[in-house]
Design the sequence.
């Protein structure tokens, strides 16, 4: 473990069991996200964007080719939900929050994302409106639609195994 630095989150296995993804604290660049190949220990690092970002959470896509990555800027003014294509080593921003009123490391530093079972949609939580709302992103279209309203906070989202429904844990009615 010392070779990779200090681990800051559990190391999720890829769906095929060939890779581990992990966060490591390094003195010069803050939190980095590494992808280790289990067979030989080879590590690739997610491009960090010039030391601007700290990564807060990851979620493997069911196909094992992509990883949803939540990241928070070190000045706590922006957060992004990105998708890292681990085979092409390319990162795409799919959602960004940048209002200082609701981007905060204490409020919701990540997006709590969950992939649909077929990997075509990504459910996530954003506090863009001042409330923690659940959204579903259609990845082929690049569009997100809210699935919860204002007036209560959403804590977690999970897809049903068949992908037809989304379970939302919230404080609505409490």
Sequence:
């Amino acid at each position: 473990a010392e070779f990779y630095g200090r681990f800051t989150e559990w190391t999720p296995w890829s769906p095929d069991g060939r890779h581990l993804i992990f966060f490591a604290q390094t003195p010069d660049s803050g939190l980095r996200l590494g992808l280790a190949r289990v067979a030989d220990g080879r590590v690739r690092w997610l491009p960090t964007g010039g030391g601007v970002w700290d990564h807060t959470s990851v979620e493997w896509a069911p196909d094992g080719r992509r990883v949803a990555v939540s990241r928070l800027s070190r000045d706590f003014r922006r957060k992004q939900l990105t998708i890292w294509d681990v085979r092409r080593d390319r990162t795409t921003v799919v959602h960004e929050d940048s209002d200082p009123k609701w981007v905060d490391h204490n409020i919701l530093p990540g997006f709590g994302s969950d992939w649909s079972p077929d990997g075509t949609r990504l459910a996530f939580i954003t506090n863009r409106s001042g409330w923690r709302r659940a959204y579903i992103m259609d990845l082929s279209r690049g569009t997100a639609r809210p699935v919860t309203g204002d007036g209560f906070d959403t804590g977690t989202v999970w897809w049903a195994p068949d992908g037809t429904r989304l379970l939302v844990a919230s404080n609505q009615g409490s």
